Amino acid sequence: MNYEDVSYEISDAAAIITINRPDRLNSFRARTIEELIHAFKRAWASRDVAAVILTAAGNRAFCVGGDQKIFNETGSYGTSENGLWEIDELHTVIRNIPKPVIAAINGHAIGGGHVIHVLCDVTIAAEHAKFGQAGPRVASFDAGWGAAYLARTIGEKRAREIWFFCRQYTAQQALEWGLVNKVVPGEQLLDEAKAWAKDAAAMSPTALKALKYGFNADSAQIFGAVKMAAVSLELLGSTEESAEGKQAFVDKRPPNFAQFR
Ligand SMILES: CC(C)(COP(=O)(O)OP(=O)(O)OC[C@H]1O[C@@H](n2cnc3c(N)ncnc32)[C@H](O)[C@@H]1OP(=O)(O)O)[C@@H](O)C(=O)NCCC(=O)NCCSC(=O)CCC(=O)c1ccccc1C(=O)O
């Protein structure tokens, strides 16, 4: 597969997968998701890879979720080679790849970009990184992993705060909440992630694989809600409420959702 939206390289025993749409703050479209899935499966299959580092181009954003401009223009997140919108499959592959996935957060991790980092095994953040959900502002949501797994990670009250009020949180706050594992100066981010990957590479791969699946077992029942949430989000996407959210984003004005209460 030819990558347009991501890059893939191997450094020592780490696969470095980089989201590469900096002009759209590394927001994703259907093609981005398809390429990310491909890159993760490539890392899964490779004996040269012991751990995956997921990061993004530039120092402004890790990923700010779905590309709202494309959605506003076309009513979807665009086309992929196989014709599918596979955000659920990306989440699944991050959970199921039997190697540690290290998110290296180089800026804003917002909306669907925040969900992706939450699902990574560990997160290292640059000092200037910002965290939060934004879906309810544009009539979107992830009521599957995005809600339930976030609550498992940081607790119900904090998860509900993040989703219901759509605020942004500093890297330091994220560290205090257990949302990230370590905060480093931006210029040290990739080296720090590589050092973690190097440490993981010294471990028994079978032990890491079994541990990852053991950790996953406890939250596996969330998957049922993931599919239900995807169906309801798809339905919301075809409504006037959704159109108002996306149009307001493009117009740079607050949405008027009052009529949909
Ligand atoms: C991230 C911001 C807080 C950054 O703010 P700031 O630094 O002031 O920069 P801006 O001037 O706002 O932005 C610069 C430039 O980038 C454009 N841009 C920003 N975000 C997006 C985006 N998401 N899509 C397209 N373009 C974007 C912005 O318009 C500017 O362009 P100019 O042309 O220069 O004006 C701030 O930008 C911000 O809050 N962004 C919006 C974040 C957002 O709403 N994200 C979408 C949330 S919904 C989502 O992610 C859907 C996910 C999903 O579909 C899903 C489905 C099923 C299961 C799970 C999921 C899932 O959630 O993963």
From TrEMBL:
Record: residues binding substrate: V64, G65, G66, D67, Q68, Y77, H108, A109, I110, G111, G112, S140, K252
Keyword Lyase in record: yes
PANTHER family: 1,4-DIHYDROXY-2-NAPHTHOYL-COA SYNTHASE, PEROXISOMAL, NUCLEOSIDE-DIPHOSPHATE-SUGAR EPIMERASE
InterPro entries: ClpP/crotonase-like_dom_sf, DHNA-CoA_synthase_MenB, Enoyl-CoA_hyd/isom_CS, Enoyl-CoA_hydra/iso, Enoyl-CoA_hydra_C
Gene behind this protein: menB
Enzyme class: lyase
Name the UniProt record assigns to this protein: 1,4-dihydroxy-2-naphthoyl-CoA synthase
Functional note: Converts o-succinylbenzoyl-CoA (OSB-CoA) to 1,4-dihydroxy-2-naphthoyl-CoA (DHNA-CoA).
Gene3D superfamilies, per the entry: 2-enoyl-CoA Hydratase, Chain A, domain 1, Lyase 2-enoyl-coa Hydratase, Chain A, domain 2
Organism: Aromatoleum toluolicum
Residues of the signal peptide: none
Catalytic activity line of the entry: 2-succinylbenzoyl-CoA + H(+) = 1,4-dihydroxy-2-naphthoyl-CoA + H2O
